[in-house]
Amino acid sequence: MAYTRNELIKNAKGEYVTFVDSDDYISKYTIEYLYKKIKETNSDIAMCKVQNVYENTVKEDKIEEIVKFKEYNRLETIFNLISVGGFYDFPVAKLFSKKSLENIEFPLNRIYEDSSTVYKIYNKIEKIVVLENYFYNYLVGRENSITTKKYVYKNLYDNYLCIKERYEFLSDNVYELKNEIKMGYIRNILTLIERAYLSENDELINSDIVSNYLLLLEDLYKSIEDFKSRPYILNNYKFACLYLLINKKNEEYVGIIKMINC
After folding, report:
1. What distance in Å separates the CA atoms of residue 126 and residue 120, rounded to the nearest whole number?
2. Which pLDDT tens digit goes with each residue over 11-64?
3. Following DSSP, what letter does each residue of the chain receive, concatenated?
4. Which of 15, 142, 162, 177 has the largest CB neighbor count within 10 A?
5. pLDDT at 148
6. CB distance 81 to 169 below 8 Å
């Protein structure tokens, strides 16, 4: 996937570039609407929302009026990535100006090459326009997808590289959001630890990656200025997990994550 995306960026002749994963599909109007809005707003990227679909189902392809859209500058876009994640975190469901992809390269042989790259694109742009329409259809539950594959050490290590590199890059380049970036880092660490414990794989649970992150969580928590005024990046579930892990209440932690994910 990363190799194909890199080749597309390198060899694209047009003014704009889009990515569609092989199992997903878009409306025949998707590119038209994204193109119109990117031109109307003079944006670097136009993005639509993602609709989950299941195998053997096809959503009706119909013209939908663009009722609502919003424009964001570079800092607002990065903040949305940190606090919302979701469709901000991957390259599909977007139309990119070719200029926004200059010197961008997706890392090869990584499971999370999307999350390891998109933040670098956002740091280059001046503006993004987000359409409220669900013009991209994401196939859920397909065999061998990242979300359905068993979580093994390769997943853990690539996840670790992704969140570490993203934290370091954003900390160096987006100083205005330093506290929000730390909170986003905490949220990503909590997700990594949760996946390790839910795998029920002792190699992952007792790995250096998990052990080091458990030690780091308390230091990160203490280093954030005015933590309680920024609850929007961590929901109550993540706050509960953070509290239990910092206070070494592992049994209670495992009980909560299994109950939520059952």
Report:
1. 13
2. 999 999 999 988 888 988 899 999 999 999 999 999 999 988 887 666 665 666
3. -HHHHHHHHHH--SSEEE---TT-EE-TTHHHHHHHHHHHTT-SEEEEEEEEEETT------------EEEEEHHHHHHHHHHT-GGGSSSSSEEEEGGGGTT--PPTT-TTTTTTTHHHHHTT-SEEEEEEEEEEEEEES-TT-TTTS---HHHHHHHHHHHHHHHHHHHHH-GGGHHHHHHHHHHHHHHHHHHHHHTT-HHHHTSHHHHHHHHHHHHHHHHSTTGGG-TTSS-HHHHHHHHHHHTT-HHHHHHHHHHHH-
4. 162
5. 47
6. no
Nearest to 26 by CA among 98, 134, 145, 115: 134
Ranges of residues in the chain with a pLDDT under 50 are 146, 148
